[in-house]
Design a protein that fits this description.
The chain folds into two domains: about 170 residues, Glutaredoxin (3-Layer(aba) Sandwich), CATH 3.40.30.10; about 25 residues. It is built from seven helices and seven strands. One of its GO terms (cellular component) is mitochondrion.
C-alpha cells in the first residue's frame, strides 16, 4: 500500500508529524485495509456522513470498543476550501486518521485515479492497492462495522484475529454464565438421581 504514496507526504491528525519515509509509510499502511475518505467539513452530505464514519472507525480501532485495533487505516482527502477548514474538521475526527496535506496536488491525482466525482466517497483498498469497494458510503451506513469482515476477507490480510466489540461482549457473558449453568445442570441431575433412588426404595420424595 505504501507504493501508492511513494514520494508523497501524509500528515498525522492533530499533529505536525509527517509520515513520508518508505519505512514509516510501510509501518502505517502495509497489511491493512485502507479507506480513502473524500469529503469536506462544509459539505452538507459530508456533515451527515462524517459522524457515522467517525463512529465506524472508532468501533473498529478504539480499545474502548475492541480488544485490539483492527487492521484498518484511513486517509482523509479533503475538498475543504481552506487549510483552516480542513484542520477544524480533522480536530473533530479520530486521532489515528491520516490526511493528505492541504493544497497537495496529489489529492486531484487520487480523485482521478479512483473516479471520485462527488463527496462523500469512501474508497476501500487492499494492501496491494486494488479496489475492494469503489464507494462504501452506503455500505457503511447500512451495515456499520460489520462490513469490515467482508473487506478483511477480500484483502486477505495476514492476521485474521479480529473481534467485534459486540462479539467480545457476547463471549464474555457466555464465559461467565456457562460454568454456572453447567453447575446448576449437574446439581439438578444429582437431585433427580437421588429422588429416583428414593422412589425405588419406597421413600416419598420431598
Amino acid at each position: 500500500m505504501a507504493a501508492l504514496f511513494t514520494g508523497k507526504i501524509l500528515t498525522a491528525n492533530r499533529e505536525q508529524d509527517e509520515v513520508e519515509t518508505e519505512r514509516e509509510l510501510g509501518r502505517a499502511l502495509d497489511n491493512k485495509v485502507l479507506l480513502l475518505y473524500f469529503g469536506s467539513g462544509q459539505c452538507p452530505r459530508c456533515r451527515q456522513f462524517s459522524p457515522l464514519l467517525k463512529d465506524f472507525f472508532l468501533r473498529l480501532t478504539d480499545e474502548f470498543y475492541v480488544e485490539r485495533a483492527s487492521q484498518l487505516v484511513l486517509v482523509y482527502v479533503s475538498r475543504d476550501e481552506t487549510e483552516e477548514e480542513q484542520s477544524a474538521f480533522l480536530r473533530t475526527m479520530p486521532k489515528r486518521w491520516l490526511a493528505v496535506p492541504f493544497g497537495d496536488t496529489f489529492k486531484r491525482e487520487l480523485e482521478l485515479r479512483f473516479a471520485v466525482s462527488e463527496v462523500p466517497a469512501v474508497v476501500v483498498l487492499k494492501p496491494n492497492g486494488e479496489v475492494i469497494v469503489g464507494n462504501a458510503v452506503e455500505e457503511i451506513r447500512r451495515m456499520g462495522p460489520a462490513c469490515f469482515r467482508n473487506w478483511q476477507e477480500a484483502a486477505e490480510l495476514v492476521d485474521r484475529n479480529f473481534l467485534l466489540a459486540e462479539d467480545f461482549d457476547d463471549w464474555t457473558r457466555r464465559s461467565i454464565t456457562d460454568p454456572i449453568r453447567r453447575l446448576k445442570y449437574k446439581l439438578d441431575k444429582k437431585t433427580e438421581a437421588k429422588n429416583k433412588g428414593r422412589k425405588e426404595d419406597g421413600e416419598e420424595s420431598p
